[in-house]
Amino acid sequence: MVYIGSRFLCWFGNKPVLCTDDPIVVKEVLMNSNGVLESMNFNPSVREALGRGILILNGSDWERHRRIVVPAFGVDNLKEMVSRINESGRNVIQRWTQKASTCDEFELDVFKEFKIFTADVIGTTSFGSDPGQAKRVIELIDEQIALAIADYSFVPGYRYLCVKRRWHSMKLNREIKKCLTELVEGRRKMATRDSDLLGSMLEANQKDADNGGLSIEEIIDECKTFFFAGHESTAVLLAWTCMLLGIHQEWQDRARAEVFEVLGTDRVPTWSDVNKLKTVGMILNESLRLYPPGVAIVRKAVMDCKIGSICIPKDTQIFIPLLPMNHNETTWGEDAEKFNPNRFSEASEKASFFPFGKGPRACVGQKLALLESKILMAMILQNFSFHLSKNYIHSPVVFITMYPQHGVPIILHALKR
Ligand code: HEM
């Protein structure tokens, strides 16, 4: 990677972009809360699919949504999600164990498998109290977001040319709305609260009714946003982690020893077990450093402003490049390019490491993403050993997330009991 300085200006078409990793400017940008900087402009197709979700909103609308959404990811709710995540993890292990029953070892693209797992987790943690509906709604949202991504283009107006796709997307939108409206209406009639994200949002919404609260449409848009923001990003984290552990066998062995110490050979993790999986946590952090699913954070100045010592004209985008910052030798030392989870052995926060963002717009799903990743990695290590297949082609590409373009083929071997 070539380092070209801590601050420079470039152009995306006719839009000026200030790219900076200057720690003072980065901190001021991320912590800014006076409304002069807004979140990046999403592509119109994605905006249309996500509606008025927190990822897209700014200003007082964003504040109103964030107030309702954040409590849904609180510790008490996450604790209740552990059994649902365990269930999704068990499905993965059962599928793989079945494959292993007919041969000594087998090859699998784990990136595909992890996308199934994370969709399952978002489905059950969002609407888990209605498993039948959860599956249907997630399938519909998945299809609609895939259509929006297919329309993703830098050519203005391109999406209007794809008439069939637009028509189909509108049809899906109606169906998603119908399913979720029935779900929400059903919940409202019940006396007890459901321990999933939808139930928590409805509860927070009721408490916040005096401040405006959210409409059913807005709650539906949040459910879609969770899927968009949390599905692929977490699958990508798991895929890069397996790739790294498939190469670095010594770390795989260390992590497995820890899993056996905490869980034995057959127990599934509880909330307190998850907190004891320190080595697995260090490995996930090192994976997020080397291969951050989100490679940059972008803001836009909505008026002329001054950040640090820099005067920023209205409409300038500010680009914080997480990927090169995570590989910077001045910050991380001469071995910055090497996989070394030991650099996360101290619990202290690393000032220039924020794969989930920082400040008022930091990722709301950070704890959920790490919880589900730790649980699944622990289950895999407990049941299988693995190495990277010779068919693996190293080709990280960026399209919304930084993902392995040709997947991550792994050779898995079931551990003898
Ligand atoms: C490894 C997995 C994940 C990574 C690396 C990740 C990373 C990020 C990053 C970098 C941001 C932008 C912060 C900013 O603009 O300052 C963000 C925002 C967000 N993430 Fe995540 N995320 C992950 C998983 C999740 C999950 C599981 C969910 C929900 C279920 C989620 C929901 C969101 C939402 C709603 C926002 C927007 C917050 C706002 O604008 O107020 N993310 N995430």
UniProtKB/TrEMBL annotation:
An example Gene Ontology molecular-function term: monooxygenase activity
GO cellular component: a single term: membrane
Gene3D superfamilies to which the protein is assigned, alphabetical: Cytochrome P450
Major location (coarse): membrane
InterPro entries: Cyt_P450, Cyt_P450_CS, Cyt_P450_E_grp-I, Cyt_P450_sf, Cytochrome_P450_Monooxygen
Keywords from the UniProt entry: Heme, Iron, Membrane, Metal-binding, Monooxygenase, Oxidoreductase, Transmembrane, Transmembrane helix
Compartments it resides in: Membrane
Pfam families (UniProt xref): p450
UniProt record similarity statement: Belongs to the cytochrome P450 family.
Name under which the protein is recorded: Cytochrome P450
Organism: Amborella trichopoda
